[in-house]
């Protein structure tokens, strides 16, 4: 291998990692239950940002598993639970939600992530709102 090729490869790998801007960012989730009197606005963090990816020109020659693109996803997360106010006694008033601690560029795991871009904005309240931090 020529020194130019090796340097180009190292530069590409280094630049690819530094150009990825995947990090936890602030996000507000609006949660309401039909039986409860209030909507709860919860401030949390989600993984958001740009990940370097390469799209192959030889798609027909590769297996489908080789065509997956990297997305900004959870590296570490924890779950917190909030109490929705104004719920009757027969209703479970708790809501658990994820909090991103750290993020990475990788394959989207549908076990805990929505891997499809939301087309319709549905994150709003239809009832009086309470704020939870």
TrEMBL record:
SMART domains: GHB
Record domain Glycoprotein hormone subunit beta: where: 21-125
Keyword terms, alphabetized: Disulfide bond, Glycoprotein, Hormone, Secreted, Signal
Localization (cell): Secreted
Family annotation (InterPro entries): Cystine-knot_cytokine, Glyco_hormone_CN, Gonadotropin_bsu, Gonadotropin_bsu_CS
Source organism superkingdom: Eukaryota
GO molecular function: hormone activity
GO CC field: cytoplasm; extracellular space
Primary localisation category: secreted
Gene Ontology annotations of biological process type: G protein-coupled receptor signaling pathway
Keyword Oxidoreductase: no
PROSITE patterns, A to Z: GLYCO_HORMONE_BETA_1, GLYCO_HORMONE_BETA_2
Span of the signal peptide: 1-16
Similarity comment: family membership: Belongs to the glycoprotein hormones subunit beta family.
PANTHER family per record: GLYCOPROTEIN HORMONE BETA CHAIN (PTHR11515), THYROTROPIN SUBUNIT BETA (PTHR11515:SF5)
Record note on quaternary structure: Heterodimer of a common alpha chain and a unique beta chain which confers biological specificity to thyrotropin, lutropin, follitropin and gonadotropin.
Protein name per the record: Thyrotropin subunit beta
Origin species: Struthidea cinerea
């Amino acid at each position: 291998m020529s020194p130019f090729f090796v340097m180009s490869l190292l530069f590409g790998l280094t630049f690819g990692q530094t150009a990825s801007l995947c990090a936890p960012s602030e996000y507000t989730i609006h949660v309401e239950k039909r039986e409860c009197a209030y909507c709860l606005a919860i401030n949390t963090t989600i993984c958001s940002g740009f990940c370097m990816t390469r799209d192959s020109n030889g798609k027909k020659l590769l297996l489908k598993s080789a065509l997956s693109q990297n997305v900004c996803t959870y590296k570490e997360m924890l779950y917190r639970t909030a109490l929705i106010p104004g719920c009757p006694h027969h209703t479970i008033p708790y809501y658990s939600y994820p909090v991103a601690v750290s993020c990475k560029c990788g394959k989207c795991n549908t076990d805990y992530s929505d891997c499809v871009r939301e087309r319709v904005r549905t994150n709003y309240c239809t009832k009086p709102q309470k704020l939870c931090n």
